[in-house]
## 1
Amino acid sequence: MSLLKSIIRYFEQRKIIKEIYDDLGNHKEVLLAERLEVFAEKATPKFAEIGLKNWNGKYIWFSDFNEYGVKHVIEYHVFKGFGGSFSYGNCFDFVPTISNGKWINHKTDKSTKNLFFNRFEGWQKSLDRDSLINPDRISTINGDKFNASLDKVLSTNLPKLQKWFNANETIEQNIDTLIAMTKNPPTEIGTRIISFEYLLAFLYWNKSNYPEAKNWIQKHFEKRIDESEKKMILERLNINPNS
């Protein structure tokens, strides 16, 4: 670790320790029921303003599918240690996933899934920079902090979300964005469950560009070694691996 990085990490740790001490006397965790009440009051109307008018009553907000089979999604994620944050992205009505050896389609409200997964910008940058401070972290240590941090995260990110959703409406737009992200991938926690390459394979398949679908699914397989899933995917895409 460089000297500058060590200094930054030292001050980040001091800031976190100070917050912990400040919270010791005012600790009343915001549990699920209260979180949902606040989300209903604050998050749901804000997300509806940018087109995500559907809410599953818990942690997922989404638009209707557009004419291209693309649905915009926002999801809340619970962290360890009294906090959470949001991801955003797209669901596609023609991109299935595998669970316990079975295909799962994502064509209904109930099956909505953030397939093209992106973290809110501040959260992602904290990973890219290996920083302890996540500016998009929503504190659940008490009600006041929960409301204040949620308000801040929403006001900071809503314009960015609107811009991203507008730029990723069509299949071609999603392909362009995904290809760009394969060239400059974000820092991950572990392995991305639904890879950019997997999505690209199905997006090209939807456009009847079967050579590119095969190209991208082979790139996906370079990161995966589950032979049973590989067989299922090739059959689904009607690809002969030996051709």
## 2
Amino acid sequence: MLRILPYNSVTFDKGIVIGDAYDVRVTYEINGERRLDFSYPINEKSEIISENKIVVCEGQAYRIIKVSKTIGEKNFIAAECSHVYNADASNIHIQNIPDLIGKTPSYVLGQIFKNTKFSIMTDSELTKVGLKRVDYSGFKIDFFSMDKTNPYEAVKALIENCGKGEIYADNYKIALVERIGSESCLRLDLSKNMKDISIERDITDMVTKLYPYGKDDAHIGSVNSGKQYIISENADIYGVREGYRDYTDYIEPSKILRRAQWEFDSENEERIDVPCVNITGGYADISKLADYADEKINIGDTVTVIDRGNEIRERVIRLEYYPYQSDDTVISVGRVKKDLFFYLEQIGTLAKRYKKVSTTGGKVKAKSVSGVISQSGMKIDGENGTVSLLSDIIEVSTGGDVKTQIGNVNGQFVFNITDNNGNSAVNITDKGNMNFKGDFETEKLIVGDNVITQDSNGVLCINGKRILVEGE
């Protein structure tokens, strides 16, 4: 049964039962819509159903966004609700999220939701529900600053930055995970548990001959035998279908070519040289029967669809079901929108498959393992360390420790060099004086018009003449 609570509730185990609710429908889409809709007869209890209150369904909290009242042959209220993650994360204003360079996605997620009612789930909590953090393998990203945004939009940018990841929300406890759901043995078949199946194959956006362009319309002719296009092997199957893509993130032809090749890659779930397959259908949820509990279907599960004897194995990416009624569940089977090109760039495996190229220039998002550039700065990683050009300061670091800083901070010129222990070795004060700490070694020292050197006998000289020391 549904329960209703005050708008500012943060725990959801109590509440007033609204048992007369009917047509209770839950809609859940991976990384997208998650809503609750229901109707309620107008009576002495219906007044408690009002905007912004919390409604709990199957342990999950939804915020009432819209209430419609109908008076006529049937007098009832229709309520539209959004899950508290979708509703509340969209209505928290963030003035600025700073650059987060070389951080795990989970760390970035924590910064996005800092000082909010949301908390990031721990590894032990995720293990209990059979999930893993998107960065469980340890990969890191560069997340550049965002201004005037909200956590919901920032998470979308984070997922795009990672190239993969799915948001898991258990009310106000959240995590960015590798995937939701599990590998299921469930088979969706018209002869067994499907009321109907609609399988749509669409070539509207299919491209088998691709013209890729980079920044300022840079093309790949110089690195592709003079050809400014690439052709998919599937052109022999589906014919030649020309198209283009703008990759304004890249300026070097070799990088543009590598990005274009990914569009036809067999490991790319969003490859553009095959028809788009969309599967929807009405599912008879027999898991509600005692003997068929293992037939339950969950969002994110990988299932097998039987189409005229052919097996199509894909994930459940959208569910629309009635938790308290026997109405059929409507499911959508397909692939979650992602771009693994950038994820593979982060962990470096793609560089092993195609030729390695250097860091690109121009407007580049924080998705490159070799280097990144944005309007607010640049970061280049090398085997021996990192160089960061952020705004008007240059930083050189090794192993995460900043060794050199040159630039302006708060209107003051900064020049600072640290030793291997992290102690300041050379710095310039706000008065322009340069301080040296530790040993100072040089072949000669020029002071004004005088040159101080050391002769072959190890004696100090000024302008070639020995310096007499008292007692010699």
## 3
Amino acid sequence: MEWTRKEDEKWAAAFKLHLVTTYDPPKGLADQALSEIHETVTKADKPAEALFGDPRQYATQLAGPHRAQRARRRKAYAAVAFALTITIASTAALRGLDMTSLWFWIGLLAVVFSVVNAVVLYRDCRPGRTPR
């Protein structure tokens, strides 16, 4: 992509650098955004800074929805890890208990709950899936 002004080229480089290194956007988002920015700058015949403002702020604005989705995914992965930890701890505690013990059934219920929770969270957090 050829920029007509050197300042626009610097703006685009700062935008892409900030977007990619700070927010880790989905593949192709940075190039698609730069393509649209280039088209707008070319049609308007104005500097990118005048049309879009500070490149870092524009990158932050563009990354907003993707950043929230990734944060939800990270929280869900942490919840899955916690559920699996409870499952492992509960199964270890269950080994020494008699099946007639109340604690055995409480521990077994914790194991079942943790496994179901982990499966549901994992299904909701696969890439490309929109959370409910």
